[in-house]
Every structure is written in C-alpha cells, then in structure tokens.
Give the backbone structure.
Amino acid sequence: MINRSKRARRRGTRRTILATASIALGASLTAAATGGTAQAAGKTPVIPGDLLLSRVHYTGTTDLITPGVTVLPTGSVAIADGSFAHVWDNVSVDSNFGVTAPIYLDQLTPGGALVDSIAAPDGTPAASSRGHDLLMGSFSSKSELALNLSTGGSAVTFMGYVAPANTLDASNGNTPGVFDPTNPDGQSVYRAVAQLDANGKFSVTQTNAYSGDNGRAAILDEGTGLYYTAGNSNNGEGTDVPGLIFGTGAQMVRPANTPEQAQLTGQPTPVGGFSVTQLPANTKADKLGKDTNFSGVTVHDNVLYYDKGSGSNGIDTLYFVDTTGNACPHGVGLPAPGAPLPAEPDSYNPSTGEPAYNMCVLAGFPNALAKSVKTPETGPATNSTAFGGMWFANPTTLYVADAGNGTDTYSNGSYTAAAAQNLAGIQKWSLVNGTWTYDYTLNAGLGLGVPYTVAGLPTGTNSITGRPWTPAVDGVRNLTGKTNADGTVTLYAVTSTVGGVSDYGADPNKLVSITDPATATALPTGEQFTTLRTAAPGDVFRGLAFAPGSTR
C-alpha cells in the first residue's frame, strides 16, 4: 500500500487462517531469539512500571505467494514469493501490498531487558478473555499499532484488523459497513480496538471506521468510558460515500462487552472534524476527509489531542477537540480551562459525511498547508511534517515524535537527505505566554541516515529500490516517557527508517531512549540516544507505553 509519495501513511495486509501451532511456533522462535518467553494472550499479569512494546512478527512462508501466478487483491500479479524479505518487492506492482501478522506486546524492564511477550488474540479459544477474538497487525504498516495507557492507568489500547494472519492487502480493504466501490482493494475487513488490562487479559471491539486505510492509535478515557481513536480512510477515487468522511480521523468507539462474533457493529462515530478553511488565510478546501488524516492521539488534563503527520492535504500539526465552541474562532487556539472531554459523537452532514468543525490547531504549532512546505524536517520548526506520538511531561512541556521526511537519497555510504534533517527525532515544545514554542529536537545518537547492519537481511543492493539492504534511522514515530525524581524525564521511542527492504515499513527498526531535563529550553550538551533493542528480520517495533497499573 505504499506509494513512495505516501510513504508516511500506512500499510495493508491479509491472508488465510494460520494454524494455532504455527502462531505458537512463531512466538517461540521470536522469544528464543530475544531471550524471553512468549506467553499466550490473557495468561500473563503485567508488571506496573515495565514498558510494553508492540511488535509485529511476520509468519508468511515461501508458498504464500507464487511469482507470476498469484493475483493480488488489486488485480496485479505478484513478482515475488512469500519469503522475507523479498516478499516486499511486491510493492512495486501493488502499492497496497501488505501481509497481516500476529501482534505481540513485549514486556520490558525500563532498561530494555525482555521479561516476556504477550500474544494478542489470534482467534483461538485461549487467546482472549472472551473466546475467539482475533486481531492482527498489518506488516508492514508503519503508522499503526501505537500504544496508549488509559487515563486512569488501568489498561493499554491499540488498533488492528479482524483478519487471519497472512491475509494480503487487508489494511486498504473496505470495512464491512462502509463500502467504497472505487477502492481497488475490494475485500471487507473490520478495524478494531484491543484493550489489555493489568491481568494480561484482552478484549476487542470492532469498528467500521477507517474503511480503505488504517486505525493507528486508540486511548481509553476512564471517565467517559470511551475509546478515542486516530486514523485515516479512503483508498478510492471519490468522496461520495459519506461513511468514508465521517468515518475517518478522530473517532469515538464505545467498548463492546461481547466477543467479536456477537458484536453488532454500527456506523462510525466521529468525535471531531477540521477543515483548513477554518483558518482565514485558506479560502479553498482540500479533499474532503483528508484534513483529518491523523497519526496520534492522547488525553492530557482532560483535553483530547490529535496530530497529523502525513499526506499532502491539510495541515501537519497538533490539534485539540474544543468542546466549548469558543476556543478558536479562527481555527487556532488553546483549550479552555475546565472544558469537558467529548462524551457524544460530533454531528455531521448526512449528504457529504463531513463532521462539524470542532477542532483547533494548537497555538504555536505549524499552521501552513502541508503542500506548501518545500524542505520538510529541515530548517525552522514550521517545516515539521511528520508528527507521530506525543507525551506531556507536564502542562507546559510537550515532547512530539517526528518520523522524518522519508526521502531515500543515497550517496557515498549515507542516506543524505535523512542525515541532513534537524527536525526529525523528538521535538520539545514549551508553553510560554499562551503559545507553544519550539525549543529543540533530540536526535543525537540516532544516527540519522547512517546505514546499520542487521544479521539476516540480504546484503548488497536491493534491485527494486536501487539502495543498499542496510536500513538507516529516519526519525522517531512513537514515544512515551516518565518523570524522574531529579527533574529529568526519560523518553522511550521507536524509530522510523529509510532504505533496506523494498517497503521501509518492513525494516527492522529500533527501540531507543534518552534523558532530558524537563525545564531546559536550549539543547543541553552531551545528550544522546541509547539503543535498547533492534528488531530481528521479520519483526518490526511499532508503539510503546507503560504497563497497566503504572502511574500515567
């Protein structure tokens, strides 16, 4: 599903049912490679204070796809078999290409040591607290599987697909309740929110949102009892299917109390809407529904925040949902003190599907159209276009991931465009006199643009990309943090990549950490990222959060 022009957006996948033994074997092999033990879903109480790292493990085999014979869901004929890593060469003939794969939450000590791996529900009776629930990730959709600790700290949530392992192109398929006849990937696959509690038990709630694309993040607010989710929709040519428009971006999902098979999944329920025309300088609207192509979501001080960091439409920046209707008369503002979180869906135009505009750009963050930025991730903070996860250290200090511009220019042993970025990494912002102000970017030690070797990847030059098989860090996609007693914060992050595998989302990436003084507004000398873990070939890291029971 990956056009290089849309590299930051997502990735899809799908297959026929994977035998329980195969999943167990894949989990065991992964655990052996990392020195831990893979546990069945719902069997492992988590440890407060530990980290959870979402990981997708590819289980496809050579015979999954036959080159020159297998017709992919978009109608193109495969050019590569199902073996890793050449299976991703199929992106050259199918921009939607992806393969669903099992999800694991690796439980780690704060130092990065593996405690165990918790398997997400895989459709077997033992894999969920509610019978045969099923949830897979899309290998290699790099924009999904962010983790969020709930507002009260009781659960961790994320999103995936209700599809068997090794399903091709699931992430670009329609959802069953929102059918787009112009979508070249005609299959139907529910998206779903998974919730893990402190006892290691999962529950899964289906949604018809994000038809044609992916749900990327979800957070449970324990006050309203709702999931707030982020993602994108619409893989077709038009915008005349209302559900594509009110079923994208910022959504609310009410947790189900029954297994997937018993759920009556209704239409999507938007929680917010935004248009670039809310800013007086923009008189022309963008493509309907694409202004809210959101990457991340969080709740802080009873305010619901989103960010956007991909796509050529809209504004790549941070947003909040304004439940007062008064916080941003011109599209930009700050949350009103004491305003409630949204408890009911946003209204929408039944003819077009367009939600009411109740979202605002967070004052101080970029407010120019994404298409107007000519040197993304290089230069002033207004050139930031790849926002991902975000973490508030306190009400006036905010850290935001920047995944990099995805440009794979390579020369003299370096990915030169990645190496030249000054905004990719973790950006720090401070609230000063009613405006969020950019302080600096943490990226020392990431090795932006420097190829790194991963044992097990092919060597030499990838004939599809014309670049080396060795990937390089391009930035940071997701992050979380904790406040230390000495006034510093320790940040944990998952890297993004360029180079390597034909679809960069399949590159083995890294878990990194760094410690920063919370009050600093100028970059301290000597701060540097430390690599805690590097994924093995066939594994990718996606999101991270502290385990249920941790202090948020």
Remarks:
- The helical segments are 20-34, 242-246, 416-419.
- The CA atoms of residues 76 and 93 lie 6 Å apart.
- The first strand starts at residue 38 and ends at 39.
